[in-house]
Amino acid sequence: MISTPFEYMRATSLDDALAKLGAANGEAKLIAGGHSLVPLMKLRLSEPKVLIDIARLPGLSGINAKDGAIEIGAGTVHHDVASSALLQHACPMLAEAAAEIGDPQVRNRGTLGGSLAHADPAADYPAVMLALDADILIKGARGSRTVKARDFFQGLFTVDLAADEIITAVQFKPIKAGAYAKLHQRASHFAIVGVAAALAINNKVIQGARVGLTGASSHAVRLTEVEGALTGKQISADNVESAARLAGKDLKDINSDLHASDEYRRSMIPVFTKRALIRALERA
Ligand SMILES: Cc1cc2nc3c(=O)[nH]c(=O)nc-3n(C[C@H](O)[C@H](O)[C@H](O)COP(=O)(O)OP(=O)(O)OC[C@H]3O[C@@H](n4cnc5c(N)ncnc54)[C@H](O)[C@@H]3O)c2cc1C
Predict the structure, then answer these.
(1) CA quadruple 65, 69, 74, 78: dihedral sign
(2) What is the pLDDT of residues 26-43, one digit of tens each?
(3) Can you tell me the distance from the alpha carbon of 42 to that of 57, in angstroms, rounded to the nearest whole number?
């Protein structure tokens, strides 16, 4: 199928993109990498009257350290996240998740902001953003606001973002003791199950843990049962094993599709949780 007709315009600045969004009265869609939006348009699941191209907006991409935090522009493509020396050193979990997205074409065009706004239930970044407790920076005609990742992902393809708003960046404190482990679909590389684990460790005791899961339910979620079981525990294989065994126990609706049944996904959640935790501990 081909898409319904649309008007195409390229924004010259963030303010220009916001003005164009406002003028279109809810009939426009931003396009960044186009790797999620264009397939939807071809299936006529999305029929915008106007496309506003933000792919080359000045200032919307880049990875920078700032006051002990890292900020990544929403227009940054997956390849740049994967190959960032700063992220590989200070926050390897995020670089390794980006390196596992799709194929080279997808990684060279697809953007962080596009992935977060689209919120595919099998996308990789949402789990990592939850584990990092990242802030999502948003700009709209009424001003700027910041949303915690845990409040941003709300349901199937549903996020806290209005039609006239743009994600500008994400910000987080880098975590070295973190890892992302994923069981991927062979063809697309989307996650059947993807687990991001971030640990805070002091004197061989786990002081805190954040574990994000993607691929298994309508949207990425925190595995709070695993986090609770790890917190305050000595680092040991037994403690990791027993915490990982709890992973997904509280999840009611597990996805089931042609790639994996709900039963299979449920059994893989602890397996990939354990892998992420072990790798995070190795980096501590
Ligand atoms: C073959 C294939 C394999 C893939 N494999 C994976 C995978 O393994 N893991 C994975 O996570 N993803 C995968 N993807 C998805 C890919 O990562 C997409 O690039 C990404 O989800 C969307 O980014 P984009 O820049 O292409 O967004 P677009 O397609 O341009 O836009 C997607 C949506 O986000 C909105 N949007 C874009 N930018 C912004 C912004 N800054 N602010 C607000 N709204 C915005 C658009 O309006 C649209 O609604 C795959 C895609 C393909 C085609």
Answers:
(1) positive
(2) 999 999 999 999 999 999
(3) 25
- The pLDDT of 49-72, averaged and rounded, is 95
d(CA 37, CA 120): 11
Q: What kind and span of H or E run contains 131?
A: helix 125-132
Look up tokens 């920078």; give the residue: 64
Nearest atom in ligand 1 to the alpha carbon of residue 165 is: 43
CB atoms within 10 A of CB 207: 13
Helix (H) or strand (E) holding 90: helix 85-90
Closest residue by CA, ligand 1 atom 50: 102
Give the count of beta carbons closer than 10 Å to the beta carbon of residue 122. Answer: 22
Q: How far is the CA of 246 from the centre of ligand 1 (A)?
A: 31
Angle (CA) 249 124 160, round 5°:
85
What is the rounded CA–CA span in Å between residue 182 and residue 29?
30
pTM listed for this prediction = 0.97
239-265: average pLDDT? 96
What is the sign of the dihedral through the CA atoms of 12, 16, 17 and 20?
Answer: negative
Structure tokens at 7: 């008007």
Query: What pLDDT score was predicted for residue 1?
Result: 80
CA distance 147 to 262: 31
Give the three-state DSSP class for 129.
helix
Q: What is the total residue count of the chain?
A: 284
Which ligand 1 atom sits nearest the alpha carbon of residue 123?
A: 11
